[in-house]
Amino acid sequence: MTFAVALLLAQAAAAPAAPGEKVFLTTCAVGYCHGVGGAANRGPRLRGRTFEAGYVERTVRHGLPNSAMPAFEGKLSEADLSGVVRYVESISSPSAPGATAPAPPSAPKPAAAMPAELATGRALFQDATREVRCATCHQVGTGEQKAGPDVLAAARRDPQGLVAASRSAGAKQVRRTVMRSGESFPARIFTETPQMVRVFDLSGMPPVLRTLRREEIVSVEPDLEWSHVHVTSSYSDAELAEIARYLAWLAAPR
Amino acid sequence: MTAGPETADFRRLLTVGWPPNARLPIRSPLARIIMSEMKRIRLLISLATMLAGFAYAADWATHNDWASYGGTQGAWRYSALDQVNRKNVKHLKLAWAFQTGDVEGGLQSTPIVVNGVMYVSTSWNDVFAIDAASGHEIWHYAYARPKSLAMIYGPWNRGVAVGDDMVYVGTLDNYVVGIDRKTGQEMWKTNAEDSIQCGCNITGAPLLVKGKVVVGVTGGDSAHRGYITAFDAKTGRQAWRFWTIPAKGEPGNETWAGDTWKVGGGSSWMTGSYDADLNLLYWSVGNPAADFYGGDRLGANLYTDCVVALDADTGKLKWYFQEVPHDVWDFDTAYENVLVDLPVKGQTRKLLINVNKGGYAFVLDRETGKFVAGWPVVKNLNWIHGTDEQGNLVGRNEPVPGKATLICPSIGGGRQWNQAAFSPRTNFFYTTGIEWCQEVTAGPEEAHEGQSYFGGNFVLKMPPDGEAGGHLGAYNPVTGKQVWQYKSKYPLLASVLATAGDLIFCGDPEGMFFALDARTGEKLWSVPTGSGHRGSAVTYAVNGRQFVATPSGWGSAVAGLFQQLWPEAEHFRRGSAVFAFTLEEGVK
Q1: String of b and e for A243-252 (b: at least 16 CB within 10 Å)?
Q2: For residue B36, what pLDDT is reported?
Q3: What ipTM did this prediction achieve?
């Protein structure tokens, strides 16, 4: 341990910016992101810019929402992350004298590392090679409007029953919707207003969020035929068990 | 829209004809006489066709409307309107300006105009319906912005598609939306793929074909597997999906080593074209990932950098032509496909012209996908020497991994996605081009699903023997012979608009909107609009009055890239407005 520290110190003394610069080159100055050496590119110029104290670290760690800048906390080792931050600060201009660092906004707590044995379940949940996968209808923690209910709530309530639930559940909330045009399809109601009903049309995959005018609707009745098993048939029981384990961990309070 | 009903009937008469293909029984002697006359007339017409060259060529000009992203589904970006022409263009005045307020990413849209209403999408996927004569807002659809995306591609949007009842747009979080055309009410919304997971989305304009909304997807510079998807225009249900990279067991998958096909890029990020007579949907596929490093993905990497022709009803592949096998330059084929019938060696052929991002135009037979001709759009091009008779690349100059290699053009392209135009009056192909180079250092990179996956970095450089800059030229579409070239200090990133008034319209990165003489390239008119042009001008008529309208509003990835060669571009002003021009009162 002390040998490694000594080595690091020796390296730092010899070439202070080198490790961070290398990480910058291979992680940040790629493709359409930042330019080599902090030059302008699709991402903004960093060289010669003035940054508020703490801004670079916050941005590298947590990214900028709804921009092309991702969060690197967890993606880079802590050593690499600090190195990159030091490098960017070294190529920037010092801020005006007397500037004080504003209190950093309360950053989201870093997610507890997922146990490695749950990686399979996670990959199966969002398996892009399957035409229909869990993630087609369910979101976990993103808040996105999706056709299916909150699967984490179900996992919290009854983690043991998840496999059975995914083979049969869903009929409770699914409605057979019949339209004046003659169209008839299974749907899950999303929102309603006096004039409109918004539903997730489940007749095909992916589901479609449709806005239906009330006067076009003939009836909306419980759909006794639709079953979750229609869309989970590509998963084996063993695969569903893996997914259930992953969801149970996600849902557990920490 | 393709040929008008009269031309189509005539063509059917010539091809299906009367005996020997006729289903009608030949009973009366009079009929027989008429039939033999028809035969003779048919022969004469065929002769005339060969001599005239274009008499029965498909007509993809627009008229009062600008109904589709490329003007019409043939992507000519050409209008038959000639009220505004070379003589009177200097009398164009501002009719109205419309500010969208959504300036991030600029305004990269092509406005669509149908029956006097203009529909335009903004960078964050708002859609406006505007009275195209007065500029007043009819409705504003505000898309629910995604909560949190790491968005490699965006924020920007290149336009909507307009059908009988609905307006369609693709979104930054990879949804397709159908909006009621009269009221702006959202009618349906469906997800093409989880954008947080795939790091991909839709930025190109949809194409409406046979009651289906067809969209591409981004992700070509990410660890992603691309696709082209069609949704039922009325209900939003998915009709078909064509994966641009074949799966294991499918033909073409063997052109990818190991499992690299799963993360091979192959995005379809621009808008296709459609030939109704052939029922072929043409779409262009982008580069393979990792862009600069091909060491892991040995093989031709189908169908990246291909023009694919799909059956419009089923999405099944009819033919493909790969412009750049095993691309290691990020030279997408993704741009527009201009459909045009032209004589080649004395015989009229149905052609398709696609300008590859590497600054090289490919001319294909759009019935068969066979290579017809290829020609450079720029002077500074060192990644190949050219093409042979079959369209194979000759003299590949690939980046050497680990070593800074000079490649021209740069990653910005010998041409950007802003589209070319074709004029059936001059028979010229009008396209922009960019002279610039770069030093690329390629190297292996680990693929992480949904994250950027370039395999190297680059530094922009001036061309070794000249200045960097842009131009807009008129070329013979088949031979590539340059007729004239208009030079621009900065690369031009706006599409070209051609009209029957023999005018060429375009806009520059400082906001100058200008008109050139289509025959000589002489600048006839210009007006400053205050923010650079990154979208596409259109022209249309309302109650007999012609308007020329252009988006203005600077943004995009390449706008950032500019700054490496032109540092002053850091201060180019953002904006997001549509400016509509018309002739002064009393001017003819």
Answers
A1: bbbbbbbbbe
A2: 64
A3: 0.78
